[in-house]
Amino acid sequence: MPHFQLAVLLGMTVALGPLALDAYLPAFPSISDDLGVSKADVGLTLSAYVFTLGLAQLVGGPLSDRYGRQRILLLGLAVFAAASFMVALAGSLNEMLGWRIVQGIGGAFCAVSVPAIVRDQCRGNEAARLFGMIGLVMFIAPASAPALGSALLVVSDWPAIYQALSGYALLLAVVLHFGLFRRIPARTPQQTPVRTLLTNYRLVLRHRLSMRFILLQTLAFSAMLVFITHASFIYQGALGLSNAAFSALFAANVAAMACLNLLNRRLLFHFPAVQIMRTAVRAQHGALALLVLLVVLDAPVWAVAACLVAVAGCMGAIVPNSLAGALDHFPNLGGTAAALLGATQFTVAGLISALSTRVAGEALLPIVLIMAVCSLGALLLANGAPRAVCRHAAEEEAEAAARSSGPV
């Protein structure tokens, strides 16, 4: 299957995450009024979704290795669609939180399947380029999500956003069944005892290089999620922008990620993925350090907004390269490695995001300081990463399997 078509289909799948995160951001005031809670409490529904989205991948990844990508992905879409419909019917914050958690389980089964499918097809710089193409397609979702949410709010109320998400998931299940899984080689699932699904995690946890990439991406993503969680306050509250300006600047952040993503794909023909990733992490930290200074000095709106665009843009070169580096060593355990990456990334980021709502409240400086601290951790990990991964993935996995106490 041509990589472009594969990237489009997998990008549509990965888009579920940004849509579920970003589409309802403009509806925070409406949800707050409808459920009789504060905007900060509504933000907990975002953190709950992200936390579950990460934790449930620990189950979905090994299951996709054992039972196949198609079964787990389509099951995830079904759960996501049902939970989205129920969120639309929620009459209280507790109901909304509960169904957002179920929605996160479905989203996790979908999210963990995508990098595993990529790892089934290719590795190394080729995998990084494919991840980049998927990211480029996926960027349409967060760019359009707030605008889509705002449009739905014009003609209806906030439950319409979740009804639209439910319909999208059902449509995607049909498209993937006929357009993807009937056209790519079927990977033979591992017929191993269920107990080994847990022991396989030790193979990934003991691999220091893969764990470095996993932790690096976790911290970089945490900085971004803190920004997304507080985006409505930053743009509309602290900077005093309108709904339309908020949507436009959010789209500009995503456009910057898309541009860096395109540049990254070209650079991968000339430089190792690790080297590009390290440069992007350094640039992101520099932009955040400048952002902190601008907030302290009460700089103009355009300067703060420009720094935020730069911070978001760097993710376009960080994510595909760190993903490829983390999964490169596990050709037979792509689902397990992807699950550990996703679980670590979303769980830690969700906790940091939830903590930021309590610590920062409605103050801009604590928000950007938390983002800067996360970026500093990513920078330290990036500076210690090797220039390139030279050893073949199969050799790494064979050595790891030999050291483990259980069968793979």
TrEMBL record:
<keyword id="KW-0997">Cell inner membrane</keyword>
<feature type="transmembrane region" description="Helical">
    <location>
        <begin position="97"/>
        <end position="118"/>
    </location>
</feature>
<feature type="transmembrane region" description="Helical">
    <location>
        <begin position="213"/>
        <end position="235"/>
    </location>
</feature>
<keyword id="KW-0472">Membrane</keyword>
<feature type="transmembrane region" description="Helical">
    <location>
        <begin position="285"/>
        <end position="318"/>
    </location>
</feature>
<feature type="transmembrane region" description="Helical">
    <location>
        <begin position="338"/>
        <end position="356"/>
    </location>
</feature>
<feature type="domain" description="Major facilitator superfamily (MFS) profile">
    <location>
        <begin position="1"/>
        <end position="389"/>
    </location>
</feature>
<protein>
    <recommendedName>
        <fullName>Bcr/CflA family efflux transporter</fullName>
    </recommendedName>
</protein>
<keyword id="KW-0812">Transmembrane</keyword>
<dbReference type="InterPro" id="IPR004812">
    <property type="entry name" value="Efflux_drug-R_Bcr/CmlA"/>
</dbReference>
<dbReference type="InterPro" id="IPR011701">
    <property type="entry name" value="MFS"/>
</dbReference>
<feature type="transmembrane region" description="Helical">
    <location>
        <begin position="130"/>
        <end position="154"/>
    </location>
</feature>
<comment type="similarity">
    <text>Belongs to the major facilitator superfamily. Bcr/CmlA family.</text>
</comment>
<dbReference type="GO" id="GO:0042910">
    <property type="term" value="F:xenobiotic transmembrane transporter activity"/>
</dbReference>
<feature type="transmembrane region" description="Helical">
    <location>
        <begin position="160"/>
        <end position="181"/>
    </location>
</feature>
<dbReference type="GO" id="GO:0005886">
    <property type="term" value="C:plasma membrane"/>
</dbReference>
<keyword id="KW-0813">Transport</keyword>
<dbReference type="Pfam" id="PF07690">
    <property type="entry name" value="MFS_1"/>
</dbReference>
<feature type="transmembrane region" description="Helical">
    <location>
        <begin position="363"/>
        <end position="382"/>
    </location>
</feature>
<feature type="transmembrane region" description="Helical">
    <location>
        <begin position="241"/>
        <end position="264"/>
    </location>
</feature>
<keyword id="KW-1133">Transmembrane helix</keyword>
<keyword id="KW-1003">Cell membrane</keyword>
<dbReference type="GO" id="GO:1990961">
    <property type="term" value="P:xenobiotic detoxification by transmembrane export across the plasma membrane"/>
</dbReference>
<feature type="transmembrane region" description="Helical">
    <location>
        <begin position="72"/>
        <end position="91"/>
    </location>
</feature>
<dbReference type="InterPro" id="IPR036259">
    <property type="entry name" value="MFS_trans_sf"/>
</dbReference>
<dbReference type="InterPro" id="IPR020846">
    <property type="entry name" value="MFS_dom"/>
</dbReference>
<feature type="transmembrane region" description="Helical">
    <location>
        <begin position="42"/>
        <end position="60"/>
    </location>
</feature>
<dbReference type="InterPro" id="IPR001958">
    <property type="entry name" value="Tet-R_TetA/multi-R_MdtG-like"/>
</dbReference>
